[in-house]
Structures are given as structure tokens and as C-alpha cells.
Structure prediction request, 574 residues.
Amino acid sequence: MASDQVAASRIAVGARPKIERAVDTSDTSSQRLPTPVAATTAGPFAIHPGMRTGGPLRASRLGNTGIGGNGYLDYGCTNDALRPAGWSSVFVRAGAAGNGTRANPYGTIGQAIAAAGDARMIVCVASGQYRENLDLGMQRRRMLVGGLNSTFTARNPLASPAIVTAADADEHVMRAEAPAELVIDGFVVTGSRNRGIEATAWDANERITLRNNHVHHNGCTLPTARTDCGGIDVGGGRTVIVDIGNNLVEENGGGHHGGGINIGGGTEAIGTLDQTTGNNDGFGDVLTMTGAIANVHHNVIRNNRLYEASLPHGAGMAIGMNGDVHHNLFFGNDTVSDGDHYGVGAGLIGQHDRGASASVALLVVRHNWFEGNRTTKLGSAIFLDQFTSGYVYDNVVVRNFGTGAIIVDGNCGDTCDGPNGNHGRNFATIVNNTVADNEGAAFAVQDSTAHLYFNVSWRNRDAEIVGDIASLDGSPGADNRIRGAHNIIDIDPAAFPLLTDTQSGEGIANLLRSLQFQDYRLTDPTNPLHPYRFDQVFVPAIALPVALQPPVDDYAGSSRPDSGGRYLYGAYGR
Prediction:
């Protein structure tokens, strides 16, 4: 492998859990670029007036989320000394007529891209209106950097927006094919009936980074079976490293997959599920779990829609590769369909469908807020589907609409054949989530094994489901295995004999502090349900290369255990 290519990293789930990868989990330095300049003082949610943020406490809980929330990299656009080695710079200011220097910039972004040719090029773009469709080329190295002032002496995409609107609405606003390295950072991207940003991948060690962009009002607006419309579409795979952070992705319309963000599946097998052994309760185990990951963090993914009439997937986001999805706000995403909201995974869906290959993707979903997402089918917030095994922890899942706010489903088709039905079975380990005030049951399981520990489920409403877990009849040979311990959840113990030390909190009037004001911390940590323990041990639903450990912090970033050595149930540790 060439030295400038990134080796596929091994996924190892540890104490956070951490996913080891070449992308730095600090979220701001993963492209081996200079240190970010100071973050904007506008605040993490100061994106535009009238932005709906939900409950009054949520913004502080999602610190650093949104445009500018983790600061801005300079890329050498204001200071040549900060330009990465081996890269050149070219400058653009709307309406100029120069040759691309800082003192005499080009007038369009397209001119700068054409002039770059095959070179590693940083395109520094001043604020202004750019009516263009940008083709960034094939297998190129490009960094597009927006939000600079007119003299290229300061950078703040909120204060100095670079707005790129599709000149031809039937084409993507920005498009790249199999980029060797691509960064798009600090743009407003709008006005396409296809995708705002489209980056295909060949599974050939590409690096794709999207940061601090406002991607809005792209895609479809009517019922459709198209898959090429919506906000962001990024190819994924075994060797493609994806970093999507601090973006605002809103009001985009998709067809079948990913109205806001779609991250494609692998063209090569990622993990391997042994379907023949009797390990892990007879349902197989993961022998390998290698490959790159998609790091999706600190985004606001809001009010995106899907319009496919049959069964759309993932209105907010769809992902088909290994992923770490953390510190995002999923709000108001809707599987509109043809008007009946009949879809799955309104907030987020993980779906790695490799058919008979039994390839498995691992999706970690942690420290996110899911609110107001809507589907009348299944999975209003989180849907783990078709060989996407998951570790879901420290999420706040509230006020969503649809059965199974969190669901795990297999990929069996008409039957789950093989020993104990493990051909197509899926797995999820669900720990320390708060699932409350949803129109629909908290959890749903179909053709799968789900392990639940230390979750709080309270005041959810579903006229079709008795209790707060929907154990759905799926394919023959794939009966569900729902087990775990130490949950506060409304169930019939006889129906779920493998869930132990689990009690309902529905009889407690104030189990959580306030549904009205969206304060979902436990009101009384010493209430009769004993919602804390001096240890926190759980058994993962599927064997991974490195054993899962209890989360080391809570949704708000407080340490687990607390100073007294206790773990509280739910997303909050205190």
C-alpha cells in the first residue's frame, strides 16, 4: 500500500467504546491538518434565527454541536505557514476576475477547480453567492474551504457564508468521484433536485471529510423511487474513511435512502459472521471486524424527509458501513412516503445488506438526542437492520412517533435457515439509554438477539403493544432472544423471562424530572426501583474482537461511575 494511503483500521470496541481508526476522535484534526483557530463565539446553535432546538436544556447537553462547534481549521487560507505540506492554494472571491492568487482571486469556484488539474489543491473561498454546479473530478485530492472574509485574513463560515446554489437544479451542487482525499468545509449548499453533496467511492482507500456545512433544501419533494436525491450522499466501504462533523443538514428530501445523509455500504465484505457454530447462544459470532469507519459527530440533522411510496429507509440518516455516530441531534425527520409516513428508521438506520456473504457492519450509536422523528412503520429513532450489529448507549430518545423507537431487525427474507436460525439474525447491545414520552413502544426486536441493560423507559404510548417491548413475529426459524438485566421498563415478566431484575416505573408519577420541560434525569436516585448500582456489568449480544465495557461517561459528559462509585440507570449518570 502506498505511503499516502490510509491502511484499513481494526475496529475494537473498548471502554468508551473506542473505535480505533486513522481518523482522530478529537473531531478536528483527523485530516492531519493544522490546529483549528478559535471557535466562533456565536455558540453551537447560532446557525440562523428561528432555528428550532426543542427543549430549553438540550443545547447545553449537545455542546460543540453544529457549525463551528469544534472550531475551524485554517488550511493555510489566511496564513501560508499553516498550509499542509505538499498542497498548493488557490483563492476565489465572487465576481473577481483574477488569476487565483490571494491578492487577485478567481471569480468562480469552477475556475479554481479547473486550474488545479491533478495537483493537491486547497481552494479558499471568500463569502458570497456562487451559482455553480461543481465537478471536483475523479480520484483527485481537493480541499474546498469556505467562510473566508473578502481579504482572506479571517475565517468564520457563520459570519462570512460562502453560498453555493445549483446553476442546474437537475445536477448535484457538488460532486466528486472516488476522491483520493476530499475535504468540503464551510459552505452553504442548496438548490439541487438531486444531492447537495455527492461523493462516490470505489473502496480504494479514499478519505472523505465534510465539516461545518449547511446543506439544505436539496432533493425530492414528491413521492418517488429515486435514490439520488437528498442532502449528502457519500460512498462507504471497507477501506473508505468518512468524517462528517459539525454540519447542519436540514429540509432535504430523499427517495428510498437517507434524506439528510446517506453513507453507502461496502463493496467488499467488512466483518464475518460465522453461521455454522453453536457459539453465542447458537446464533453465531463475529470472527473478524476490520475496516474503516464513518465518524459522524456533532451534526444537527433536522427536518429531512423521504418520499418513496413503498418503504423508505432513514429519513435523517442511512449508513451501510462500520460507523461511530455520536453527539448528534436528530430532530423532526419524517418518512413522509406518499403521505402515510410508512417507512423505517426515521432518525437513523444502519443497513449493511451483503446478502448471502454474511458480512457484518458494526454501528456504535452514542450520546445522541433523537426527538420528533416520525414513521408509522418501525424505528422512529434508531433502526439496526440487515447485518448491522450495534452497540447503542447514552442516547436520549424522546417524543418520537412510531413503534420501536429503538429496533433491531434481521435479514432473513422468507425464512431464517441454518442452525438455530442464525442465517440472517442480527444483534444489538442496548445500554444506559433514556427512552421516554414516545408515541410507540420503546423497543422492538425481530429476527434478532437484543441485550438490554440499565435503560430507562417511561411514559411511552402504543395502542398495539402490551408493555414497552414489541417482540415481533418474523421469519420461521428465527425466534427472538431478548435478555438482559437492571432496566426500568414496563413488561410482562412471563413474556420476557430472560430480562431479570427489571421493573416498571409507570406507577411513579415523577420518575423523570419533567417531561414538559424535557429534563429527563431521574428525579430521585433513591426511589424504590433502586435505579443505581455499585457495578455495571453486561453481556454483549454478540462476541466482538474486544469485549464491550460499560460506558465511561454519560450523555452530558459526566463520569460513570459517579464520585460515590454508583451507576444511575438511563442516559444520565447524575
About this structure: Residues 1-53 have pLDDT under 50 and may be disordered. The two ends are 48 Å apart (CA to CA). Residues 109-116 form the longest helix (8 residues).
